Amino acid sequence: MKKSEFNFLTLLTFSLFFFVSVSYGQDKKMAELKDASLEYYDLGGEEVPLIFIHGDSRDISQYDEFILNFEESNRIIGYGRRGYGNSKAKNQEKGLQADANDLLQLMAYLEIDKAVFIGNSYAGFLMTHLAENYPKKCIGQIYLAGNPGATFKNIIAKDTLNAHKMMFWAQAGEDYANETVKFNTSFSPNYAQEGYTIPNVPALGFLNSNNTRGIENMNVILIYAQRADNIPYQEPKVFFKKIASDSLLIKQVEQFDKDVVKPNLIQDSKMWVESFPSLQIVNLPIPFITGYEFERKPELIIEPIQNFLNSLKK
Q1: Secondary structure of the chain as H, E, C letters
Q2: Which end of the chain is more exposed for a tag (fewer CB within 10 A), N or C?
Q3: pLDDT tens for residues 205-230?
Q4: Among 141, 130, 132, 167, which Cα is nearest to 7's?
Q5: d(CA 111, CA 108)
Q6: Taking the chain, what is the end-to-end CA distance rounded to the nearest angstrom?
Q7: Is the four-CA dihedral 70, 138, 148, 168 of positive or negative sign?
Q8: Smallest Cα–Cα separation from 256: which of 225, 220, 281?
Q9: What does the alpha-carbon distance between residue 181 and residue 255 come to, in Å, rounded to a whole number?
Q10: Strands 75-79, 115-119: parallel, antiparallel or unpaired by DSSP?
Q11: Residue 221 falls inside a structural domain
Q12: What is the number of domains present in the chain?
């Protein structure tokens, strides 16, 4: 896992699952670009390019099976972001703009003027950044994991226990936790500004039958506390074991979740839907949206994605 950006929505879904990539042997190549060397695959064809962007917990192989559902209707491209697998940066830049530059350079390398982008987890941040800043490069956006978490900085700011930093630490170490908190507290998309409307880029998103992601009803801190024995790093392991054994701390965490986490997650969904004028929402008959339905329940999302892709050709 790359030790740089890691978004709150990845944290929520990673808390529930361990992800295992299944490789179907795509013919991977290397693109030598100005700012990075990126591993990629391109299945070719003359149809509308569909670029798959992987999340923070995976790599270029994330969608190896899922892409087969669209190879007849679209030109399929997948790539590894800098710092993942064989993809390497040629400079010290990090963050959304660096990743956006890499992607735009890859598109130029492949002679692609504009494309449809699809992804989950951190890809939601990146796709929103592209829509806000490079709308002419975007034919459409497909958000597998829902809204990209603009209000997470509000949650961290009021986290007096530093529980979220400890959750990041539990994933990949202290340095990773510090970098991740820094990224998430500085993330401020334009759509979070009052009165801002995302440019008119067609988009597709998935929510549950209540028109939410459902994660608003999950107390992730307590999930970590319940699974503290599985944490490989000593300090966060001790931290979460302490929470699990202290009834007062449990009450504090429950109150924090009720007063801060849940309202901010609800507000984030609301801002995302209201600020994206061309966003189409598909309500899935499941309690919460993980962003990994593409491998766990692909039958729920294949047809809506195919319909959306077909609508872009009209």
Answers
A1: CCCCCCCHHHHHHHCCCCCCCCCCCCCCEEEECCCEEEEEEECCCCCCEEEEECCCCCCHHHHCCHHHHCCCCCEEEEECCCCCCCCEECCCCCCHHHHHHHHHHHHHHCCCCCEEEEECCHHHHHHHHHHHHCHHHEEEEEECCCCCCCCHHHHHHCCCCCHHHHHHHHHHCHHHHHHHHHHHHHCCCHHHCCCCCCCCCCEEEEEECCCCCCHHHCCHHHHHHHCHHHCCCHHHHHHHHHHHHCHHHHHHHHHHHHHHHHHHHHHHHHHHHHHCCCEEEEEECCCCCCCCHHHHCHHHCHHHHHHHHHHHCC
A2: C
A3: 999 998 888 888 899 999 999 999 99
A4: 167
A5: 5
A6: 39
A7: positive
A8: 220
A9: 22
A10: unpaired
A11: no
A12: 1
What amino acid occupies position 140?
G
60 in Cβ contact with 79 (< 8 Å): yes
Tally of CB atoms within 10 A around 91 = 11
Please say whether the beta carbons of 294 and 301 come within 8 A.
yes
Question: Using only C-alpha atoms, what is the Rg of the chain?
Answer: 19
What is the chain's length? 314
Rounded to whole angstroms, the Cα distance separating 88 from 60 reads 13
232 within domain boundaries = no
φ/ψ of 199, rounded to 5, equals: -50, 160
Task: Let me know if residue 44 belongs to a domain.
Answer: yes
CATH (domain of 208):
3.40.50.1820
> For 90-130, what is each residue's pLDDT tens digit?
999 988 999 999 999 999 999 999 999 999 988 998 999 99
**Domain contains 248:** no
Distance CA 282, CA 288 (A): 13
Is residue 138 over pLDDT 80?
Answer: yes
Identify residue 181 by its one-letter amino acid code. Answer: V
Residue closest to 36 by CA, chosen among 63, 70, 6, 2? 2
Tell which wins on pLDDT, 227 or 191: 227
